[in-house]
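Re: the multi-chain job from yesterday

Posting the exact lines I submitted so nobody has to dig through the queue logs.
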Amino acid sequence: MSPRRTLRWLPLHAAAALTVVICLFPVYWMVATAFKPSRDIQSYEPRLIPEEWTFEHFRTAVQADGFALFWRNSVLVTLGAVVLALVVALGAAYAVARLRWRGRRQFVLAVFIAQMAPWESLVIPIYIISRDTGMLDRLPTLTLVYFMITLPFTVVVLRGFIAGIPPELEEAAQVDGCTRVGAFRRIAFPLLAPGLMATSLFGFITAWNEFTYANFLIIKQQDSRTLPVWLSSFQTTFGTDWGATMAASTLFALPALVVFLALQRHVTSGLTAGGVKG
Amino acid sequence: MAASSPRRPPRGRPLALGPYLLIAPAVLGMLYLLLYPFGRALLISFQDFRLRELIRGDAEFVGLRNYEALLADPTFWEVVRRTFLFMAVNVVAIMVLATLVALMTERLGRAGRAVVLSSLVLVWAVPVVAATTVFQWLFHSEFGIVNATLTDLGFDSFEGYTWLADGRAAFAILVLLIVWQSVPFAAVTLYSALTTVPGELYESARLDGADALRIFRSVTFPLVRPIFMLVLSLEVIWTFKAFVQIWVMTRGGPGDATTILPVYAVQTALAHQRYDLGSAASMVTVLLMSGVLVLYFRQLFRQEGEHL
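And the result, structure tokens for all chains:
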């Protein structure tokens, strides 16, 4: 390699290496701590690589009060919200992308505004409404709120995907005797798979992560708590058991990490298809 | 067979009721779960609404009294000032770093690019509460790796330093956390925008003798400008609404050193049971954010208004 090329090559790759290290270090430190024996965690000279590996903290975390229950709650709420948002958004996105009707522009504008909704500002009224309708401390309330948080985004992205499929394909199927619905189901729906995956992934991450509503709408009924809230209260429950806390964080982050990494290609194409561009 | 059904509309003309049935669930959802709570919040902000009214439900209207009380409170103005400072510091850091990372990623080879993009996506996928807990652990006063490293480097004053007990240090850690979490989204999005810039443009600019900075200013930036502005507005909104990281890590403390508007609203409403003042603070937050939204929508309509 010529000195000139080295001069260009070196800073670029040093910067790239630095970026990767800064990105990954906190994640690595979480996992490494989770595998370290307690005496190595409470050491004034932390080691970069654990000397000894142990599953002890994972055992503590899994056996902690309610872990399985809160895990189940999170899965139920998340899946419920994602499925509901997909079904409702698919209809709306189809109507916006394929049909002409009065009020269409206004509807799209409303969806865009809803996408920017200041959710944190609505905790108090939603708390009051849930209390008045006897929905406080109940998981379906969280499902509905998460459904609403993810719905506008889902409509916008699915609209982008449906608009990207040439309508001629469905028209041809209709000429061949399919109904409008049948043509959509047989021709366009399979082509929508990446769009559906990208949007459900975003819905999944949003609902899986959500803390504010889970924290303020589930108060008395501790059995209805979800993982993020449980995790945030972990430190007081366990005093200063950082090993167990990091093991619990790892277990909590794992599904999101795996799903996200597996589908990252669809995520980027989903973004360009309309999520961010509008 | 549905195809021979007499109710099938003539080809080429849309169903009269169809579209409205399709959007009905979404519209109902938005009305009941978004507009109605918002209306309630607005109502409460004009009422005398404390714990007693919450239980008995006979709130009185007091006009603008809550807003007057709020605006007369020096703490509130301190919080507003801090919110803008917090947002500005975060957004500037996020946009500068994300742009640099995006430009760097574009210049890397295939393998390097894959590694950088994967690690960005990995950070992006770490749940907020998990990331916040990890940062608490990194900055732990006794056993945290940050203090240990700083002490090893010779900064002995960091031995046992309690980061979260000092207002400025806590503020800085929260900025660090939010920047770390936000750069991946911004960088990946900007990178995908950069890949759409045709390479011939760079070549002709280089032939004209432009240097790297000049090329960025006159060729690259104008082309990715729409996406850049969009990411910018989103980051402004997101950092303005930052709540979970602050609530989980410091609850707005020490003192109120990390209290920004959303934290202030929740503290006022749920901790002090002043639902009326909390709602008024939320409404002021919404008002301030709408300013940003106007910019966002102007951008959006300029970009693809014709598709709407």
